[in-house]
């Protein structure tokens, strides 16, 4: 699986929030496409030098916001319809 190029703001109080913000920004910028699978939590933890549970907390936040979906104990992937789509639609 490829490594993600994600900027993490280290001034954040909680590491999981900084990672979630970085992943959300990468999705918004098109660095990670809708439907694309994310690296495993273990791979992300290695890449960003964080505990796996910290990564899982960030992924859980993104999942609760509708940015990603998960297949239990298999993989995470970016949702096909991003939450931003709902925010930028015009009323008819």
Structural commentary:
The relative contact order is 0.18. Helix 1 crosses helix 3 (52-65) and helix 2 crosses helix 3 (52-65). It is globular and about 30 Å long. It starts with 14 loop residues before the first helix and ends in a 5-residue tail after the last helix. The protein contains 4 helices and 2 strands. With 92 residues, the chain is mainly α. A hairpin with a 3-residue loop joins strand 1 and strand 2. The protein has helices at 15-28, 41-48, 52-65, 83-87, and strands spanning 68-71, 75-78.
How far apart the termini lie comes to 41 Å
User: How many helices in DSSP terms?
Assistant: 4
Give the overall form: globular
| Major sheet | 2 strands, antiparallel
**Over all CA atoms, what is the radius of gyration?**
13 Å
Strand order within the widest sheet? 1-2
Helix and strand run: HHHEEH
Task: Kindly report the average pLDDT value.
Answer: 87
What ranges have pLDDT less than 50 throughout 5 or more consecutive residues? none
Strand content: 5-15%
Q: How many DSSP-defined strands?
A: 2
Multimeric state of these chains?
A: single chain
Q: Please state the structural category.
A: mainly alpha
Question: How much helix is in the residues?
Answer: 40-55%
């Amino acid at each position: 699986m490829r490594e993600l190029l994600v900027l993490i703001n280290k001034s954040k109080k909680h590491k999981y929030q900084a990672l979630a913000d970085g992943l959300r920004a990468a999705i918004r910028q098109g660095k990670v496409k809708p439907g694309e699978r994310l690296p495993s939590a273990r791979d992300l933890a290695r890449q960003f030098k964080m505990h796996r549970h910290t990564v899982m907390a960030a992924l859980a936040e993104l999942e609760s916001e509708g940015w990603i979906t998960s297949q239990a104990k298999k993989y995470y992937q970016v949702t096909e319809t991003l939450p931003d789509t709902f925010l930028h639609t015009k009323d008819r």
